[in-house]
Fold this protein.
Amino acid sequence: MKKNIFVLSTFEMIITFLFLLIVINNSQSQGNSSKEYSKIAEKFVRVALQDQQGYKLLEDLCKIGHRLTGSENSLKSIIWAKKTMEDFKLDRIRLQKVMVPKWVRGNVEKATIIQSKYYKGKELHVAALCPSISSNGIAGEALEVKSFDELKANSKKAKGKIIFFNRPMDPGNTNTFYAYGSAVNQRAQGAVEAAKVGGIGVIVRSVTTKHDNNPHVGSMGYVDSVIKIPAVSIGLIDADFLSEAITREPGLKLKINLNCKTYPDVESYNIIAEITGTEKPDEVIVFGGHFDSWDKGVGAHDDGAGCIQALEILTLFQRLEIKPKRTIRCVFFMNEENGLQGGIEYGRYADTAGEKHIAAIESDRGAATPRGFTIQSETATLEKIKSWLPYLQKALIEWVQPGGTGSDISPIKKCKAFFGYVPDAQRYFDFHHSDNDVFSAVHVREFELGSAAMAILVYLINEEGL
Amino acid sequence: MKKNIFVLSTFEMIITFLFLLIVINNSQSQGNSSKEYSKIAEKFVRVALQDQQGYKLLEDLCKIGHRLTGSENSLKSIIWAKKTMEDFKLDRIRLQKVMVPKWVRGNVEKATIIQSKYYKGKELHVAALCPSISSNGIAGEALEVKSFDELKANSKKAKGKIIFFNRPMDPGNTNTFYAYGSAVNQRAQGAVEAAKVGGIGVIVRSVTTKHDNNPHVGSMGYVDSVIKIPAVSIGLIDADFLSEAITREPGLKLKINLNCKTYPDVESYNIIAEITGTEKPDEVIVFGGHFDSWDKGVGAHDDGAGCIQALEILTLFQRLEIKPKRTIRCVFFMNEENGLQGGIEYGRYADTAGEKHIAAIESDRGAATPRGFTIQSETATLEKIKSWLPYLQKALIEWVQPGGTGSDISPIKKCKAFFGYVPDAQRYFDFHHSDNDVFSAVHVREFELGSAAMAILVYLINEEGL
C-alpha cells in the first residue's frame, strides 16, 4: 500500500513533536529575552537619568581645568581618573604609558593692527594653533583668501604677507561634522600653503558657526620641506571685522605676537579599567573617549563627556548588578587632539595581547541628546545591530547606519565592529576647541542618555556576541 | 476562428499604448517630483539655516518682554506682530478679536517662615499661580504631601494648614511631557483639593527637573463649590529646603503674601496672516503657536518660538518663490495658557467660514532640534505622510507617528489631519513657565530647523493634498 503522506510513523511523530517543542521553546525564550532586554534597557536609562552620577563626575573633572596633552593639568587629571576608577573598585585598572608631544601656549597671544588710517592699535582676538612656532613679532600686510586655490591664484601678492584664511564653516548643512571637515583644511594646512607662496604668518577664521569672538583652536601641521611660520585662529566677530577693514583699507598692517613653544616629548598615559568577563574574559568590548583636551575651555564636551560616559557604562553595569560574561573595558585615550599616540598604543596592545576585541565604541561628538550609532562592520553584523533598535530607542537612539566611527579606536586592526556614538550636533561646534567648552554647556539629561545608550549597546553585544 | 489572445485589435492597441504612456509619464513625474521634493526640502533647510531670519524676529519679539494674556505687554506684542506681517507683505493680515481673562501678578510675592527655632525669617522663592487670589497674609503650619491620596489620608491634619505638594516630576522618564503630565495635577487642582480638607493655602513644587530656585508658574483651577485659597509654586532648591525643614521641625509656621488680582475680561486678538492659494484658495493649511506667555521669563521657547516658526513658514515660501496652490495660513493664537480663548475662536471660525481646513499644525514644544511629528488622522493619511519621511529627514525629522498634537488647533472640528511638531525635549522643562525661558536659551540652528521641518511638511501637503 502506498503510504499516505498524512499518516506518520511513531518515529516521525516523535521527531515532529520534538521539533515543535524546540520551535515553541525558542520562540518563548526569544520572547522572554526580548522583554528582558527591553526591561534592562529601560533600567539603564532610568538609573542614569535619576542618579546623574556621570554628570557629577564630569563636573569634578572639569574643576581641574583643561587637559592639554603633556601639561601638568593633564597629569593631575590622570591621577584623578585612576583614583576615581579605584574608588569604584573596577577590575585591572591600568596606566598605559605613551610618549606625547608637549607644546605650551605661552603668555603672549596678540594680533594688533599697527599701521592703518582707521584702525591703528586695534587688537584682534586670536589664539595660537598647535604646534605653532612663536612669532618673533612678525608684521606685514594681510591678504584675505577663502581657499588654497585662491591663494595660489594670488601667489604673487602673498610674499611677505600675513595670509588670512577666511572661508566660513557652511551654516546651511545639517551635518555639522561635514561642514567642519569642509573648512578645517585652512587650519590644518594653512601655514604650509601660506609659507609655500612666501607668506610670513597665518590667521585662520575659527571653524565654527557660533558668532562670538572666541577663537577656536586646534592642531595644524608643518612639513620639513617648507619653512615654518606662526599660525593663529581668530574669533568670528574679529574675522568679519578684519575682512571689512582690509576691504576698506587694503594696505593695513598687522603684527602677531606669540611666545608659544614646543618641548621634547614627555611621558603620559592611557587610563584603562574594566569589568572582567565571567565566561569569556578574553573577548573584549572596548569603549572610550579621548582624555586630552585643548587648553581653551576645559574640554567638557570634547571629550571629557565621552570619557566619563565610557566610565559610566561600567558603573551602570555595577549599579544594575549585571556581571558581564565578556570583558567590558573603558579606555581614556591620551593625545587624540595632536598626535593620537594613545590610540596608536592601545591599538598595538589590542592586536597583540592575546585578547579578542569584538567591538570598539567611541564617544567623541559631544554630549547632546542621542540620535544614532555609526558602524563599521560586515553587513550581517550591521543587520544584527539594526535588529536591536527597539532596545536602543529606549535611550532615544533613532538609527544605526554605516559611517566613520572614531579616531582613537581606528588603530585597532583586529576587531569585529567599530561604533561611533552620534548625539545631536547642531550646537557642538559652538563649543568645540574654545573657551565655550565648559561644564555648564553640558546638559545633565542629554549627557546621561548618552551613557545609557552606549550601556545598552554594550549590554546587547555582551549578551548576544557579534 | 477563436481570437488569439495575443492578437490585439487596433482599438486595443491604441488603448494599450495610451495606458503605457500614462504609466510611463506617471512614473517619470513621480521620479521627477521625488527628486524635486528632495531639492526643495534641502532648500528650505539651507535658506532657514543661512538667513536665520526667524531667529532674529524672535529676538525682536523677546525684547518686548513677556506676553501674559490681557497685559499691556501682550498688546504691544500684538502690534509688533501685525506690523511684522505687514512688512512681509503677506495676504489677509487680520486681528481676530477674543475676550480673554486678565490677571495681574502684583508686586508682592513672598513666603516667609515666621515661627521656627532654626529658620525664622527665611524667605522662600515662590510665585503665584494663575488665577490665584491674593493671600491676605495667611499664616499656618505646613503639611507636606506627595499626592491627593496622601492628602486625603491625612485630611484630619490638614485643617488650617498650608498644604505643600512636593511630588517631583519624574527625572527617569525620557518622555518629559509624560513626566510633566504626571506631576502637574498638584499645580492644576491642588488648591481645590487642599481647600476641600480645610487647607488655607497651597505651595506646589515646580514641575521641572531643573534643579535651580526659579519657580515655574502656570494655570490652576478653582471650582465654585469650594472656597478659593491662594496658591504659589516654589523653586526646587527651596522645595527641598522646606521639606527638610518640616521634617526637622514639624510645627514650623509660614506666612504667604500675595497681592495678585483678577480683573474683568478684556479684548485681545489672534493674529493671522496667509499666502492665499493660487488654485484652491479655499483649501487651508493652518499652522501656529500660542502668542501669550507667562510673565516669568519672556516665553521665548513657550511659545514665541512656535509662533515665529509658523510665520517663518510663510516667509520661507516667499524666499523660495513658491506660490502655494492651496492657502497656507499662520495663526498666533491668544490665551492658550489660561483659557484657550484664541484657539476656541479660531476653531469656531474655521468650522463655519466656508473654507476647507485640510491640515492644522501646532508648534508648542520648544525650539530644540527636530525629532518627529505626531499626527491625528485616518490611517491612510498617516501612511501617506510616513511616505514623506525622506523629505522631512532633510530637517532631521526621524519619525511620524500617531499622538496628541496641540491645544490651540484642537477646537477645529472639520480638518483632515492634525500635526504636532516634536523637537527634542530633554531640556524643555528647564525653561517652561519660568525666568529661564529667555531668548538666549534658544539655539539658532535648532530653532531654524524647526521652521524648515514644518515648511517642508506644509509644502508637501500643499503639493499632494491629504
